[in-house]
Every structure is written in structure tokens, then in C-alpha cells.
Amino acid sequence: MAGLVLLLGFGCASPPYQPALLYLPGREPGKALRDSVEPVHTFFPRVRFLQENLILTGWIPLPGLPYPCRARAEILARPVAGGTLLEIAVQRSKLQTALLTQPAWVDDGGDRSLEERLRKVLAAQLGGRPVKPGEVPRRQPASRGSG
User: Fold this and answer.
1) Which burial class, exposed, middle or buried, applies to 111 when counting CB atoms under 10 A from its CB (0-12, 13-18, 19+)?
2) What is the value of pTM for the model shown?
3) Helix, strand, coil: what percent of the chain each, to 5?
4) Cross-strand pairs, 99
5) Range 96-106 burial, b when 16+ CB lie within 10 A, else e
6) Share of the chain above pLDDT 70, in %
7) What is the secondary structure of 30-87 as a DSSP string?
8) Domain range 16-131, CATH class
């Protein structure tokens, strides 16, 4: 569980880390996660589900490096008004520890370029649209019955 907390940046110094966001109108969270596996499988060959999270790991080629770097992604699906919000966070291991079985993950706020690549692939495959934190549709509170 500590890895999930670090990946999404909770408990970090300000400013808090904000993962890439993708809004999928009309989608149920569980189905959105299942539908996300195939498009991102080319980036991350190892996939596992952990409650409402999709955890992905793999060796990713990075521009300017002659060898791939180990990376870990987490996709969290949250129900919002009219659909599902996917939060996409990616971490790379530090290069000097990339070959170890337990890599030391870079905790500098995520790999923005990989997050954006994943978000574009998922948007193209699932029909969603990128959003910023202030643009996320909110769930409406249940209306109270008359008295």
C-alpha cells in the first residue's frame, strides 16, 4: 500500500503531485479499467489489478538512452458525474538501480511524458477526453425526498 501512496503523491511536500486525468463519459469504473488493459499492454507487459487500481510494470525505451528503463504505472478509476475519471501516474526507477529486483523509484512527481503518452493512447482507444483538476465533473449529491 505504501507504493500506491508514493505513486499518487499523497503525503508529499507541496505542491501535491497531480497525475494525468482522462474523463470517460458513460463508463463504469470497473469496465473502464478492464478496457484499459489492452491499449497500455504494449507499454507495460505486466498487469495486475489491486482493488480499484490497475498496476502496470515494464521496461520502457526512453529517448536519448541506449537501453530501456524500468517504469511502473498506476491507473486509478474513480466514478464521477456521468462517467469515470482515470488518474494515470507513472514512475521510473533510478537508472543506477534499474537492474535490481527491487528498484528505488524516482519520487520527483512522476514521469509526465509517459503519463501523457498513456493518456493519449487511452483517449484514442476508449473515447475519453483529457481534463484538468478543475474540469472534473462532480457527482451530484442525492436529492432529499419531500418531507
Assistant:
1) buried
2) 0.71
3) 30, 30, 40
4) none
5) eebeeeebebb
6) 65
7) HHHHHHHHHHHHTT-SEEEEETTEEEEEEEE--TT-SS-EEEEEEEEEEEETTEEEEE
8) alpha beta
